[in-house]
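Q: Can someone sanity-check these two? First one:
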Amino acid sequence: MAVPLALTHGEDQKGWRRNQHLVDSLPYIDSLTPAEKRAVDQLIEEEMRSSSKRPSDYLGDLEPLPESRIAGNELLEKEMARAAAGEAMQAMDTFRYNLEPPQPSKRNDVAAWRAALDNAYAQLEHQYNRLLNLELLLKFGPDAWRAHNEQLAAFVARLQAQLADVRRRVDDLNRERKLQQHAAGAELGQLEAEYLGLVHKNAEIEGACRGLEAEVAAMRDALPAELQQKLEQQQQRREEADAEAEADLMQV
């Protein structure tokens, strides 16, 4: 399917920004003179000086963002509010990992010693689980990490292939546009040359006609009064006949 060279005039076009000016130029062939560039830069500077918009106001011209998936999640909303307020994240409580004896005032309390003993058993189980995890990591970790790296490499390869495909399609599109615009530029140049030639030719014909009219007027002035009157009568009858013929054509 051929890509249009420019936007079609007279049709509704939807842009990515509200109230934008649609550009229908042909950038590959439209030349920009230094004077035109200075004029454009001056217009931009004048608009920037007269505009009351702040940089953040331009975001309002963009399409609204998709609905956030954070809404409705109490934990995420709380963390977002904390980050927005600049508050530090609460540190992890490591007190329960300590192995402390009962306080001096409770050294003779059996319940306090039983709680300390239960905590020691729990800490021992935690350490045992850590040792098991370390043994599993030493045994299966290298293979698992190698498989994970292979998955990441395959994922990166897919992304690179997609990126290369997008770049290829962009290059193909730009190449097609460039070829079409250069072909249109040659045709436009030929038409412009023909137009200028016709304008020049019409100017020459107009100048020749004015010269002939001046010669005819001079010849009429040189004729006797009686012949001038006859010529004027013939001219009047000719104009009346032309008017009648035109009226008949209008009726038909």
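And here is the second, same format, sequence then tokens:
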Amino acid sequence: MRGPTVFLSVAASLGLASAAPAAITVFGNSNARSCYEAARAERTGPTHIRHCTRALEDRTLASNDRVATYVNRGILHVYNGDFESGIADYDRAIALDASEPDAYLNKALALLHNQNDLPQIISLLTTALEFGTREPALAYYGRGLAYELSGDIPSAYYDIQRAVETDPGWELPARELTRFRVVGGEDS
């Protein structure tokens, strides 16, 4: 089951309400942990972002925690409507660990807000899935929306259907599937 929102503006404009972000767990450093908890709980405000920034300023922060903290701070920026800063943090995470799937997932969802560069969004979501995102249903659903916006309706249907299969308890993709009508089929 998902939490109440993915990203404020994205949810409103693209129907991603009831999907949770892909926050990355951090153990150890208290500021990094506070940053993770804020991203997971969908908190907004500068205090939570400051926890993330303080964690990133700590030179002893483990590499994997640094990557996670960039992703989590990116989520908080997006919650606050600062998509540019969020995307910059996802890019920093990818630069440090090019195989971190949830950096790709969150970057794609932030880009989806503006509904431009749909091929890049589709590519980012495909990469997130290939690297094993913690939120595959969200990645399939987001990619389905990007395919639909780009006019590739069969791929959109397939990915939204995959989101339903991946997380049957998530109602939004199931509801979205009812907008599609399958026509044709094998002739007798």
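A (reply): Looked at the second one. Confidence is low (pLDDT under 50) at residues 1-15. Residues 137 and 166 are 5 Å apart (CA to CA).
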